[in-house]
Design a protein that fits this description.
Length: 305
């Protein structure tokens, strides 16, 4: 697949340092790494620590060590979102100047009875869209979303569409606690780094239409997207810190990489039983195809749930 405008292809892996790396994150890392390396693209690493209150001290450094043990070598320096506040602020100011955002005073309690969006967030009904009551100051800022379906073709999941206005409503780009929202940060970071191909977990599939709207509002290029299935536990829940997902840093790295390849539809041959991560990744790089990745949003992986 060619990069937009003939640009050099770049992929990326962008973990959040809310805890040690678990198998679900390894699957996303291996998928994005192989998709980049199999086409000669660069593979960049970004630590998504924009949500500072959720970050665990030392988790980012642990993630970097685990990636190295798994043979996942990245290109260039690591990008840290926590160092990019002024870049996000400049993007917000551009949106403000264009009249694309508005201030909001609504609290979580005020939205508690609102309908749920696909991703579990509360749909915003537009309470502050036409201005704030006299004497009130905005707590947060939201992107003004117009009706109409946002469409894109995911390289794994196929055609996707969502009417963001109907399902989500105007969404937050600057939070009430002063931190920039993930949706804005990831769009700005991908564009500035020249990311052409995003391979990530399907738990972020429903975020993509919002990111497309932000790309259009800021005049930024749209990467190609591919969402690999998320790994679920026995209860059908996505592996996460909240579901007490097992960290992989104490497991045999070759076995973890082999299991990730199996989950992604690329089971290693018996001859590679017990192989080191570098050997497994070199083999997989030669046969990698997104067409072999299961076209589902989630699936269990015995031994990791």
């Amino acid at each position: 697949m060619s990069a937009p405008g003939g640009a050099a292809r770049k992929g990326r892996f962008a973990p959040s340092p809310t805890g040690p790396l678990h198998f679900g994150s390894v699957v996303a890392a291996v998928g994005s790494y192989l998709d980049a390396r199999s086409s000669g693209a660069a593979w960049l690493l970004r630590i998504e620590d924009v949500d500072v209150p959720r970050c665990v001290p030392g988790a980012a450094e642990g993630i970097l060590r685990t990636l190295e043990r798994l043979g996942l070598e990245w290109d260039g320096p690591v990008l840290w979102q926590s160092s990019r506040t002024e870049v996000y602020r400049a993007a917000l100011e551009r949106l403000m100047a264009a009249g694309r955002v508005f201030g909001c005073i609504c609290t979580r309690r005020a939205l508690a009875d609102a309908c749920l969006a696909r991703d579990g967030t509360r749909r915003y009904s537009g309470t502050c869209r036409d201005g704030l009551p006299p004497g009130r100051t905005a707590r947060a800022f939201r992107l003004r979303v117009e009706p109409g379906c946002v469409r894109f073709v995911d390289r794994i999941q196929g055609p996707i569409e969502e009417d963001v206005a109907a399902d989500v409503g105007d969404f937050v780009v600057l939070r009430a606690d002063g931190y920039f929202a993930y949706q804005l940060a990831v769009v700005v970071d991908d564009a500035e780094a020249g990311i052409t191909d995003v391979v990530r977990g399907a738990d972020l599939l429903d975020s993509t239409p919002r990111q497309l709207l932000l790309q259009r509002a800021l005049g930024l290029p749209q990467p190609a997207y591919a969402h690999v299935p998320v790994v679920t536990n026995g209860a059908g829940e996505k592996l996460s810190k909240q579901t007490l997902a097992q960290a992989v840093d104490g497991l045999a790295p070759g076995g973890v990489v082999a299991d990730a390849l199996r989950f992604l539809g690329h089971p290693p041959p018996a001859a590679l039983g017990g192989a080191a991560p570098a050997e497994l990744l070199a083999w997989a790089q030669g046969i990698w195809s997104l067409a072999r990745v299961p076209c589902v949003r989630g699936a269990p992986m015995p031994g990791y749930g």
